[in-house]
User: Fold Polyphosphate kinase from Faecalibacterium langellae.
Amino acid sequence: MIMSDDTIFINRELSWLDFNRRVLALGKDKNVPLAERVKFLAIYGSNLDEFFMVRVGSLQERANLEQEQGKKVKRENKTNMSAAEQLTAIMPKTAQLQEECDKYYAKALEALAECGWRKVDLDHLSKEDEHFWKKYFQTELFPILSPQIVDNRHPFPFLRNKEIYLGVLLKEKHPAGQSLGIIPISSQMERMHVVKKDGETQFALTEELVLHFAASIFGKETIQEKCLFRVTRNADIDVKEGMMDHDIDYREIMTELLKRRRKLAAVRLQITPAPAPEVERLLCNRLLLTHKRVFEQKSPLDLSFFYKLTGRMEAEGRPELFYPAARPMLPPPDYDLAAEVQKHDVLLSYPYQSIRPFIAMLKKAAHDPEVISIKMTLYRMARESQIVQALMEAAENGKEVVALVELRARFDEQNNIDWSKQLESAGCTVIYGFDDYKVHSKLTLITKKSKEGYSYITQIGTGNYNEKTSELYTDYSFITADHGIGEEASNVFQNLAVQKLTEESDRMLVAPLRFKSVLLEEMDRVIAAARMGRPASMILKNNSISDRDIILKLQEASCAGVRIDMIVRGICCVRAGVPGKTENLHIRSLVGRYLEHGRIYSFFDGAHTRIYIASGDFLTRNTECRVEVGVRVEDPVLVRKLTDILQLQLRDNVNAREMRPDGSYQKVKPAEGEALVNGQMGMYELLKNDWTQPEPWRLSAAAQEKQPEPSAEAEKPEPAKTEAAPAAKQAEASHPESAAAPESGDRFDQLEQMVNHKKRTEPQPAPAAKPIKPVVVETPAPRSRLKRILDFFRLRR
Assistant:
């Protein structure tokens, strides 16, 4: 389906494929160290597996229902495409990506060979090597293989999701007779075999050895065709189907559905090497797949073996092939987060800062005699979670511990089922939330009772309570002792316990009723300011955007002259720079060493900035179909900190790609003489004194002037003109909070001031945008001190 040139909408699925293309591009980027490049190839492959299992599977089910049962065709609300039309558009784009992946894979093998890691080419073996590998196959692999024959007397076996198989077309004794031989290459087998020879490391894949020596299994004279193949199955289970019997425990329902998932319909067939037309035809007939769902490729069917390969490379001491070592920064040994948060709000930035202070705070709360309860929402937990251990320890110490465990966290269902059982055994109260809404919130509430009354510590984050991903994903964790926020969080937990949606809140965002509506109101405030001639702007950072209402509001804002900078890592269903519609909308995607996962929403009306962090993106599922939480950050120290983080990412010219008006992305390259700015690695410099800095937090001059190289192997990018730097400067001018803080002053009485009085560079083309005049920002004084006084007198009463 061809989209018109003036539409502002992009299809969700096609936009996701564009995101995965950006991941794939890192597999060829010479500025990325070699071992990291091959890992990006593996990430691309696993991403695509999940896309077919979830998104394509769901679309296929819908298309089948519409075709077989004559149901009304449901069309996507932005591009008006039906499920069948979306599937038709997905397949050729996926095939094109596979061709690119094959090329990058071949280049990666060449680079690995140059570094002493050579993949065995089984089609071009010397006699000596042929003898070695044949003996290896016969002694190590042949005894554990389980060949099967499919003919009139033997049924077709069930093909497991994502498992690799050898398929062989066999000649029967009687004329024109054919049968299919199948050998599972079990995921339980060792996938990669490594030998040292001639001063280099050689590696071979199990499935390729089985393919090469197939004749020793079936007989050379009987084989007509042979290939390796892999089936991807739908994994989009419908929880409502299992809810028919309400007497069954919810955990049992999910366990049964997970078993059912394994046998859902096939949605993709991968084959290598091609051609094997008759094997392909037989498989398609059995799996009920059309030829369009078959992807012939030259690279291995599953690239995850690269993880093991790079693990060996690291173990053998090849640091130059990896990103320079970078670990989360730890606070001073005597740092006490619980005590620190009584003085002021705290914002932790993962993975640059460690999650350990938060875990230490939970452990301390587990033993604090004044703590009466700990409540937490749990979505994705580590396999060995210190956070869950702290909750169980608190329950065993007599604290009331309430854990909302979302059992429907896709592909983490079994882990969450297991943890929920352990939490219950430890004495925790485990709840599961809503039937109709996933609880995707990241919310913790610690309640204390002393002679002065009740007090709270509330944590609201953008990322999961997961120690492992806290070192891989960029996220923000806001911790506060603000009594009002604590009361709001308490109300949210009370509502979750009785499956009631939260309808009222002040500082907190709570989807689905108090999330999108609040953000749309903020956008309206900025639009109104722009129409009055103020230098209004927005900076919106998240993972994805598909919500039609928000997209239309962004169009309205752009037409009103609001400068909008969006940092959207993944799905982006709105086009930037469409004449007369989104001329003032600038979109960039950052894909790099860490997975960008944080959400920051900043609104500047020409006088004040109101800034939020949240667990939810701008996908319709987040704004309307999930329970998400966020919070408005009012501490000027943290407002400045978040703003400077946004500005750093808008200056990034290492990981960034900018959207063009046709919806495609172009890599941002520094202009001649312009310094490299890495929006991820620059965070270490930005936050290096954050634990102990006594004065108001501010962007260090060193971080502004010098950014670390993206890798040890980074090459100097070729000079090229780019709009990235001017765009960042425009955004900085229209968001004065990014300027440095004054040298002194009480942090509670500090007024935000604009010290960078640059006139705004007009967006091109954007005739409706108005130039910025110097503005002094008059932010209301934070309420922390006043609220403490009021709370004190209320507790005294």
Remarks:
- The two ends are 68 Å apart (CA to CA).
